[in-house]
Amino acid sequence: MKPIVVTGGTGSLGRRVVRELLDAGREVVVLSRRARPVADGSRFVSVDLRTGDGLDQALTGVDTVVHCASTLTGGDEQAARTLIDAAKRAGVTHLVYISIVGIDRIPLPYYRTKLAVERQLEASGLGYTILRATQFHELVQHIFSLLGRSPIVPVPTMRFQPVDTRDVAGRLAELALGEPAGRVPDFGGPEVRDAKSLARAYLTATGRRRLLVPVRVPGRIMAGFRRGENLVGDRFDGEWTFEQFLAEHATRRPSRFTDAGGSGG
Fold first, then answer.
1. What pLDDT, on a 0 to 100 scale, did the predictor assign at position 106?
2. Which of 96, 133, 159, 235 has its CA 20 to 30 A from that of 242?
3. What is the CATH number of the domain that holds 19?
4. pLDDT < 50: residue spans in the chain
């Protein structure tokens, strides 16, 4: 069997995809700009997708690529063009891409970039599979870790369907081991939660007490989130809840303030 390449294979999602593929008995090549520890049994290749240096060699003899590399600082569209061109030259037959639920309905700049990459794949002529997932637990934790620095925490009136990278990685690995399927059904977490309940869960897990204040943020972006465009709605694929994630990843700190938010949503 030919090796499977995972771009961004040292990231929070990518490294779990690597482990899933290794556990399935596949040889895995990890591509990343920065050398970091990778899963035992995988092979690391330093490649900058923006320039393509070293990419042709890394894709030699490869049929399948799982594209997890992404950055909020820009360059994803260029990286995708570079990867697609190299994949064509190498004869890659299947490119699997992780995207985000609601990118065609919420005008967030990063979402527009993800949608543009989807369009590139659709027009590439390559066999491809696109999986859109809801927000990762790590993102929700990061949001409330920043907001929780203040004694008064503004909580946007919106909902999340947070999903664990372990669940998403398992699905991506399953797709990578199969045939190209185009855009497959969206992948959602096990629960739809309002932001206030998630904030309270985070504060409880970290031993903080804060005043939670619901805030209705204006604008088209937040309107999309309030409509639930970031939710799968009728699918609850993931198994790991936000509380289970926090039990493993949250760091407790001394309590200083009172949560006056009550038990309502």
1. 97
2. 96
3. 3.40.50.720
4. 253-265
Strands of the chain, DSSP E:
4-7, 28-32, 43-46, 64-67, 94-100, 128-133, 152-156, 159-160, 182-183, 193-194, 211-215
Is residue 215 a part of any domain in this protein? no
- Return d(Cα 182, Cα 240) in angstroms, integer: 26
Tell me, yes or no, whether 234 lies in a domain: no
207: number of Cβ within 10 Å? 13
Give backbone dihedrals phi and psi of 135, rounded to 5 degrees, phi first.
-65, 140
In a domain, 39, yes or no: yes
Report residue 258 as tokens.
Answer: 């009172």
- State pTM to two decimals: 0.90
Integer-rounded Cα radius of gyration of the chain: 19
Q: Which two three-digit tokens encode residue 229?
A: 């465009």
> Which residue type does 153 have?
V
Domain count, the chain: 1
